[in-house]
UniProtKB/TrEMBL annotation:
It comes from the Bacteria. SUPFAM superfamilies: Acyl-CoA N-acyltransferases (Nat). The keyword Acyltransferase does not apply. GO terms for molecular function: transferase activity. This is N-acetyltransferase. Keywords: Transferase. It holds the Pfam family FemAB_like.
């Protein structure tokens, strides 16, 4: 019996600019769980604005497969050679520390992820499942042959995580909090499904913002002015300043995505006496058929403190937008049990990991088994405190 042969040409690219944007985006659009963050425009902006570049500890090593006959792109993955573990949101600092204490180098490592973006979705972009399997195998072979300690695939789909574990990678689980649109007619309809105390608290929080004299406006991507972007960037930097850390992104990046993918962006701007004082940026994507889609909470900041303003700009205004636009899911980002009181429920996320050192791989495998049990118990406990009425 003749077996069909598949011939692919492998590429390791040092910049997103080295792959055709139209071919990349066409592949992304065909995925079961595409996100705006996988678009060529988003990844290119990270590189062009020097947010994810070698001098920032993010050296692009994008892995691509092209049909050897037509040279058409059939699979790709955003891969980076990392010199640190910042901006990943799946924490392996303890692993790096254990390597260091034993005199072994943990960096560089290979990372398949969207920089600074803890959003689950497709990571192995492919034209079909055959190409996806070849890409997964190529990614692991690349790691095995490179001078790296490890390979990490962050926030893939469940199917991709399964495919990578079938190849011998270890799977890790985490928890995020997502809001699901149950066909709500308006915000009050959503509130009516919550327990009385939760409903009362949300109304009180929104009232505090109004009574402080603060108003909000939503600005869709195509209407965001350069002044809006400059103001938002100030707010974003202020958030990092308050946490004594350095921001990952910059004004050039926000300007670039504002220009190249406005249909996926919205700013919420809070104003007091006609002056902007706070802002949040959300990213969203509608489903192919126009019904449903996902909104992603991303960045927030304020130049003046107003009680409960964070909840209004980063949660309640985006929730109203989801209901009005009939978006199905609001992913609230990394961590945050406080989101449950606002209708967000725990959701398990995944990552997969390969470590070259056998002894460390065995130790991490045992750690992940224990951690998995703790994660499941944690989710069960959270679900027992469901904020919705019985």
């Amino acid at each position: 019996m003749n077996k069909e042969r598949f011939d692919y040409r492998t590429g390791i690219l040092g910049s997103p600019a080295e792959v055709d944007a139209a071919e990349w985006n066409a592949l992304v659009a065909r995925q079961a769980q595409p996100t705006p963050f996988l678009r060529h425009e988003f990844l290119s902006a990270l590189h062009a604005a020097r947010c994810a570049t070698p001098d920032a500890g993010w050296a692009p090593q994008f892995v691509t497969l092209a049909d050897a006959r037509t040279n058409r792109l059939v699979a790709a993955a955003p891969v980076y050679l990392k010199g640190h573990s910042y901006g990943e949101y799946v924490f392996d600092w303890a692993w790096a520390d254990a390597y260091k204490r034993n005199g072994i180098e943990y960096y560089p490592k290979l990372l398949c992820a969207v920089p600074f973006t803890p959003v689950q979705g497709t990571r192995l972009i492919a034209a079909d499942e055959t190409a996806r399997r070849h890409l997964a195998a190529t990614l692991l072979a690349f790691a095995e042959q490179a001078d790296v300690s490890s390979l990490h695939v962050l926030f893939p789909t469940a199917d991709e995580a399964g495919a990578m574990t079938d190849l011998g990678m270890m799977q890790r689980e985490g928890v995020q909090f997502h809001w699901l649109n149950d066909g709500y007619r308006n915000f009050d309809d959503f509130l009516s499904t919550l327990e009385q105390k939760k409903r009362k608290n949300i109304r009180a929080e929104r009232r505090k913002v109004r009574e402080a004299g603060v108003s909000t406006r939503r600005v869709r991507g195509e209407d965001i002015s350069d002044a809006d972007w400059r103001f938002f960037s100030r707010c974003y930097r202020q958030t990092y300043r308050e946490h004594f850390s350095t921001p990952y992104l910059n004004l050039d990046f926000f300007r670039m995505i504002g220009e190249s993918m406005p249909e996926n962006l919205m700013l919420v701007i809070a104003e007091y006496e006609g002056k902007p004082i706070a802002s949040s940026l959300v990213v969203y994507q509608r489903s192919e058929n126009g019904s449903g889609g996902t909104l992603y909470g991303r960045y927030w900041g304020a130049l003046e403190h107003v009680p409960c303003l964070h909840f209004e700009t980063a949660y309640y205004q985006p929730l109203e937008f989801c209901i009005e636009e009939k978006l199905a899911v609001f992913e609230g980002g990394a961590q945050g049990e406080h989101k449950m009181a606002r209708g967000f429920m725990p959701t398990v996320t995944r990552s997969t990991h390969w470590l070259a050192h056998p002894a460390f791989a065995d130790a991490v495998s045992r750690f992940l088994d224990d951690e998995k049990h703790h994660i499941h118990s944690y989710v069960d406990e959270l679900n027992e405190h469901n904020p919705f009425r019985p």
